[in-house]
């Protein structure tokens, strides 16, 4: 499963970079999302495989902080890139004449380094919060990796502070992007419903279905982890949701985009057969 996720996302990156027809803002975001998914799943799965092979579940203090920081960087990048892709579709459908002006090359190139900087800041904030805990060492984390929501729950002295921190960071880095995505799709749906042709409506909805499916899958499982941790404190329930959004979701993203996106499917065929027809 892990190899399929990594190789499949690498194939998407190769298809987008090698095909001039896919040199657009949307596919530029998609290639970066594939790169983030590779880093996202590679932060946890190789360590799990090593632990299974060595029959060890221990992780060092520094190793846990490093894994948590890198995990948060790629997780936050996924969130921000999905938001950028939703905004791209909003501009393409609601402001088609101004699309080249708004989604220009400079903006597209700038958004991705900014996403990385913002993601790194979130990761370092979590690490800083964990470093304030004096009772962190030699404790059992009820998860198969150093899940930030579980690590912050280990604090007995700073329960209110850690919960407040999680809610503030969650609002800035997750809730606000979700609101942006919902607003974008509200405007998209409102605009599409004004189209008189039923075939035009179907085409518009079908081309946005892959992104909407990935958004629902990613945020649904991610929010499941945090709500499970905050409400029921069930280690088993949190572990199931964690496995879904760290291992299964990047794999499903791969199949959703490769199977439901006609342009990407054509690019993959041309990559496999260079002499194939490039018509859409």
How helical, in percent, are the residues?
over 70%
Low-confidence stretches: none
Instruction: Tell me the β content.
Output: under 5%
Largest sheet: none
Secondary structure tally: strands: 0
Through-space gap between termini: 31 Å
Which class of secondary structure composition applies to the elements?
mainly alpha
Shape: globular
Mean pLDDT: 78
Secondary-structure element string: HHHHHHHHHHH
Q: Give me the number of helical elements.
A: 11
Compute the gyration radius: what is it?
20 Å
Q: What topology emerges from the helices and strands here?
A:
Layout: H1 2-18, H2 25-42, H3 45-54, H4 61-94, H5 99-102, H6 105-131, H7 148-152, H8 159-193, H9 198-232, H10 235-260, H11 262-272
Helix pairs in contact: 1-2, 1-10, 1-11, 2-4, 2-10, 4-6, 4-8, 4-9, 8-9, 9-10, 10-11
Structure characterization notes:
The chain is 79% helix and 0% strand. It is globular and about 60 Å long. It has helices spanning 2-18, 25-42, 45-54, 61-94, 99-102, 105-131, 148-152, 159-193, 198-232, 235-260, 262-272. The model has no long low-confidence stretch (mean pLDDT 78). Helix 1 (2-18) crosses helix 11 (262-272) and helix 4 runs antiparallel to helix 6 (105-131). It contains eleven helices and no strands. It has 280 residues and is an all-alpha fold.
Quick overview of this protein structure:
By secondary structure, the protein is mainly alpha-helical.
What descriptive keywords fit this protein?
single chain, 280 residues, mainly alpha
């Amino acid at each position: 499963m892990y190899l399929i996720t990594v190789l499949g996302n690498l194939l998407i990156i190769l298809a987008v970079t090698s095909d001039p027809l896919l040199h657009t803002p949307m596919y530029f975001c998609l290639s970066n999302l594939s790169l983030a998914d590779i880093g996202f799943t590679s932060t946890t799965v190789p360590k799990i495989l090593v632990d299974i092979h060595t029959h060890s579940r221990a992780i060092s203090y520094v190793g846990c902080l490093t894994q948590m920081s890198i995990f948060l960087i790629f997780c936050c990048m996924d969130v921000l890139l999905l938001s950028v892709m939703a905004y791209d579709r909003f501009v393409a459908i609601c402001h088609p004449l101004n699309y080249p002006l708004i989604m220009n090359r400079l903006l597209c190139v700038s958004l991705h380094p900014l996403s990385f900087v913002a993601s790194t800041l979130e990761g370092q904030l979590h690490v800083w919060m964990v470093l304030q805990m004096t009772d962190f060492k030699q404790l059992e984390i009820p998860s198969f990796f150093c899940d930030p929501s579980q690590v912050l729950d280990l604090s007995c002295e700073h329960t209110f502070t850690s919960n407040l921190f999680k809610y503030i960071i969650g609002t800035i880095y997750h809730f606000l992007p979700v609101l942006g995505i919902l607003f974008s799709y509200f405007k998209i749906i409102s605009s599409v419903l004004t189209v008189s042709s039923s075939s035009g409506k179907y085409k518009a909805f079908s081309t946005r279905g892959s992104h909407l499916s990935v958004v629902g899958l990613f945020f649904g499982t991610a929010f499941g982890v945090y709500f499970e941790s905050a409400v029921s404190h069930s280690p088993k329930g949190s572990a199931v949701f964690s496995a879904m959004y760290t291992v299964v979701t990047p794999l499903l993203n791969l199949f959703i985009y490769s199977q439901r996106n006609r342009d990407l499917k054509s690019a993959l065929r041309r990559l496999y057969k260079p002499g194939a027809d490039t018509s859409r």
